[in-house]
Amino acid sequence: MSHFDPAEFSRMLARLTPQELRQVEGIVAEARKRAEAVLEIDARAEAGGPASSCPRCGGDERIRWGRTRTGAQRWNCSGCGATWSGRSDTPLARVHRPDLVVALARDMIEAPQPMSCRRGAEVLDTSRHSIWRWRMTIIGALAPEPDGTLAGIVEADEAHQRESRKASREWVRHRRDPATTPPGGWRVWEKKLLAATDHGGHRVFEAITDAGQRAISGALLPVMARDAVLCTDGLATYARIARDERIPHFALNAGRR
Ligand SMILES: [Zn+2]
Predict the structure, then answer these.
(1) What residue ranges do the domains of the chain occupy?
(2) What SS3 state is found at 83?
(3) For the chain, N or C: smaller number of CB within 10 Å?
(4) Are 222 and 194 in contact (CB under 8 A)?
(5) How far is the CA of 238 from the centre of ligand 1 (A)?
(6) Which residues of the chain have pLDDT under 70?
(7) Which residue ranges are recorded for the region named Disordered (predicted)?
């Protein structure tokens, strides 16, 4: 770890022009995204984390073994000699920019309206195909364990997933001539998802055909524990499902939609 002297750093910043300072802000923001991704990767391999024991022999005896190219802690098994990091055996293992994928996953989970693939490609400065591929990987990684049900307070909301690869030609045509829409309209390739999460960190994405009561309850009820409480943005459909199924229901931001 290099030595960091805040006083020296601030003296250096004091000599910069406003334009140079803006450049520094961009560099710092980028570095911070990377550092946060590395922290999340390292947390997986900390004692008690899902990647804390040897992926080959399951042993717990290990020593620190340098860092990966992205800066994450690497471990070496004292039993069998295997090396691994918190990123091993995860969908992130083959991704060269885990920081971007973490940013994308945050957007999918936390943003009120997740970015389109095109916007994601612009924001994260990568190809739309990469965004689409990462999204599918993230959705796969977020799928529940076979016996996992959502318990306690369960939050549910619909999300849209634009399948950009299938529609990339339509996109190009639409970009050239905004009056052009694909046959059948955009809905043809806009996949609707029901996103549900509980406070234990379990998340479920279920494909739904529409936002009707039948589709939503068909996706939601099988993944909810019997004694769970439903928390939504107050869409009337959820209120009806909760009433019909006798689930306690809390509506946040009621009336905003
Ligand atoms: Zn081992």
Answers:
(1) 8-89, 92-142, 143-257
(2) strand
(3) N
(4) no
(5) 48
(6) 1-2, 91, 94, 141-148, 159-191, 253-257
(7) 161-184
